[in-house]
Amino acid sequence: MKKILFRQISVLVLICLSYLGALAQTEKYTTPVKWEKYKIGDKDVSVLFPKLPILIQSSNICSEQETNKYAAYAEGAVYGLNITYKSKKNAPDYCSQKRKFNETSFDGGVSEVKAFLKTEQETKLKLSDYEAVKIKNERFTYWLINDFKNKRWFELWVSNTSEENPIVKNFVESLKIKQNSAGIEIGNGSSRTLGDASQTEKPEEIKSAIKSEKDEIVPFWMIVKPAPPYTEMARRNQTQGAVRVRVTFLASGGIGSVTPVSGLPDGLTEQAIAAASKIVFIPARRNKINYSVTKILEYSFSIY
After folding, report:
1. Residue 231 to residues 55, 67, 189, 264, Cα–Cα distance (Å)
2. What is the CATH number of the domain that holds 23?
3. Residues 179 and 198 grouped into a single domain
């Protein structure tokens, strides 16, 4: 009994210290959940989001593809929209495997999602008057929409929530693909993942969460982890190595402080901090109560 009491007191002290450290960050890194129509003006697309999403841009030059990934956390779930479109540049000669962006590119996108979700099952349906494919597993649901006439496709996705959730249905059905779509312009998106203003750590909840002799702990889960890009200066100077940063994953679902533990010159430390600030995750839970955790992450930079 004494051991159990000592463990509970120790856990309470540690969590309260974490709470005090995170409290000052909470207001800065959270925002109220407010579902509004957002748009990507240069892509003629609009969709509902619970808050301003982060934007991650990536490219696969050997497949002539570029992707914009938008994602936002809200109330224990993550909502996302990926737009993959033809690059303005053709695949360079040095690519060992070159693939043209054509009618089969969408099928390749479907195969990639299946591989990611580790499933071969799919359901074909109509969505926003487009042919679509739905793929799901226990934690994700994807809806892929082919718009090859405009040399692109869309992937609406949700994680940690059921597709039967009315909020999810509204999110999926809100997608509009048309010129001059109405909505708030996303632009470059939020500079960091924003948590829910209503989901911050509270001392009384922490106390109640550790009263149980048998803890039910669900670790935090990273959904999106952006890769930091090289800077041109780092390329010129052939700077390589690793940057380690200490990241606070707030109970609210937002990214708190990001501080360097070890860095690199030529702007690479700053790139690692910016990438870590856009990690999208599901918060850790103890006995159904969210709590903040701090982790050290490493980002490797290699020219080759």
Report:
1. 19, 20, 21, 11
2. 3.30.2420.10
3. no
Q: Is residue 166 domain-shared with residue 244, that is, in the same domain?
A: no
CA 83 to chain centre: 14
CB 59 within 8 A of CB 67: yes
What is the rounded distance in angstroms from the CA atom of residue 227 to the CA atom of residue 231?
13
- Tell me if residue 157 falls in helix, strand or coil: strand
- Same domain (yes/no): 168, 206: no
CB 71 within 8 A of CB 222: no
pLDDT band at 4 (very low <50, low <70, confident <90, very high): very low
SS (H, E, C) 36-62: EEEEEHHHCEEEEECCCCEEEEEEEHH
Last residue in a domain, options 152, 185, 218? 185
Mean pLDDT of the chain: 88
The answer to whether residue 215 scores a pLDDT higher than 70 is: yes
**Structure-token pair, residue 153:** 């496709």
Q: How many domains does the chain have?
A: 2
Domain of residue 104: give its range. 31-185
